[in-house]
Here is the input.
Amino acid sequence: QSALTQPRSVSGSPGQSVTISCTGTSSDVGHYNYISWYQQYPGKAPKLMVFGVSERPSGVPDRFSGSKSGNTASLTISGLQADDEADYFCCSFAGTHWVFGGGTKLTVL
Amino acid sequence: EVQLVESGGGLVQPGGSMRLSCAASGFTFATYWMTWVRQAPGKGLEWVANIKPDGSARAYVDSVKGRLTVSRDNGKNSLYLEMNSLRVEDTAIYYCVRHSNWRFDYWGQGTLVTVSS
Here is the structure.
C-alpha cells in the first residue's frame, strides 16, 4: 500500500500552464481509471477537482484537466491564476483499497 | 446542502482509545459508501478505511488493521471510527468523506487527533 509519487513542488507564472504528475504501478494507476485529484488550501479540507481520470465536477473550471498514460496520471492547470496556489493530491483505486499521492505544492510566481 | 461534521478528536496517550463521530446531512446517508481519510501534520493524505452503505463490508489500510474499526448508524445518519491501541504515528486530522461513484466528493472539516504522552 505505497503512496503514489508526486513532485514535491511545481511553479508557474500567471497565464502559464503547469502539469503535475502522479506515478503509481500496474496495480493502481496503470490498472484502474478511478483516478481523482484534490486541491487543498492551508487549513482547509481537500476539494475534488478531477475524477475518472479526466472528468470535472460541476463548478470546476475547464482550466483543470486530467489524463493518464501507463502508470502515470497527470493534472494540467492552464491559464494559471493566483488562487490556484495550493496543494494538489492524486488518488487511485488499488483493488482493495485507495492510495493517495504525497502531494504537490503549486506556487504561482 | 451536503454537510459532514466530525467530532471526538483531542489528546490521548499512546495505547489509549478514542471514538470519532461524523454527522451527515443533506443527502441520503444510507445509500453511500463512507470513508475516513487522515492527514498527519504537514504531510499528505492517507486513506484509512471505508464502509459499504449497509455496513456489511469494510476495508482498512494495513497500518490500522486490528486497531481501528469503522462503523455506521444509518438511522442516525452517522459514521464512526473506533480507535484503539493508538500510536504516536496516528496523530493526524481525520476527515469524514462521502464516497460516490469512485470519487471522494464531499469532505468534512476534519477533527484533530493527537497521540502523545
Remarks:
- Chain B touches chain A through 23 residues (CB under 8 Å).
